[in-house]
Amino acid sequence: MKYYLIVGEASGDLHASNLMQGIKNSDPDAEFRFFGGDLMADKGGTLVKHYRSMSFMGFWEVLVNLKQVAKNLKFCKNDIVQFNPDAVILVDYPGFNLRIAKFAKQLGLKVFYYISPKVWAWKSSRVKAIKKYVDRLLIIFPFEIEYFKQRGVDAVYCGNPLVDTLDSTKNPEFRKQNSLGEKPIVAVLAGSRAQEIKHNLLVMISMASKLTDYQLVIAGAPSLDMAIYQPYISGTDVKIVFEQTQELLKHSVAAMVTSGTATLEAALFNVPEVVCYRGSLVSVLIAALVVKVKFISLVNLIMDREVVTELIQFKLNEENLYRELANILPGSSGREAMLKSFAELRDKLGKPGASQRFADVIVSTLKQLNTQ
Fold this sequence. Notes:
Rossmann fold, 372 residues, 13 strands, seven-stranded parallel beta sheet, alpha/beta, six-stranded parallel beta sheet, 2 domains, 17 helices
């Protein structure tokens, strides 16, 4: 069968690539065409547009790029018509993908939504669109089960696919290959978009002058190049590695992480963390009015309590960040409590194999729908 996938960011590329492998296992004749990234391209099929050209973050950033978003939508719709897939699989990226869901459903195509829009955080009105235009909603957080059930959506939960991406084996040559010293590493995960780097990285790397017994290493985002980071790290001892985020976490004793999938990834690697997030003032002011959740990090949302400290906007400064980091470094009082909570978190997310289980649901549902 033919599958058209749409992804708008790096984490979606990762999860969609694993889903594609699962689909290939269940449907050896699967043919893929997609808006996505390099990891998806490695699985085969045709990469139509890279997510790097579509990644706009924040209310204000999206607003000023509306013309480009409209062009991408028009191009995508035309491409779907020409490909005529058996299924359209939408991965997160709701502002774009819910429009495509409506379009695809009106064409009579089968629509799957993998990794639900975060309607429990804001824009709960999108639940109506999901009910109307999505044939199967595939969710990845356990707390979403009851949320969607209460709203009449029969969502499918098969575990969290991030668990499938984890490899605890350390590369013994990691430090040598990246010219890193012997000091313990504090990882810096400052986001996957240029806007996140602009707003967050400077205060994060300011810790280098305070944590003199440690070395700071930035996880370079695959969607960005060195030129984005150079103005911030020039003249410092802070190092950067690309395409090695998991390996960096495995070698780190602590981390500073912007909100997003990375907060969960660090926790699953058992790396105590401080969540750091600043955005443009306009975007943050709008978010304060519409966002309905108590936390911004996935760790705290899943656990429904503050496990990791969140330093948001004006709370993110050198004094606060140093205090919270010092509390989770080896030998510090808050470290063991956080690690204990991380163990509970892993139990909540379930066993590996979620990507294949979700793929099986898609393929079996398609077969069932096609026989009706």
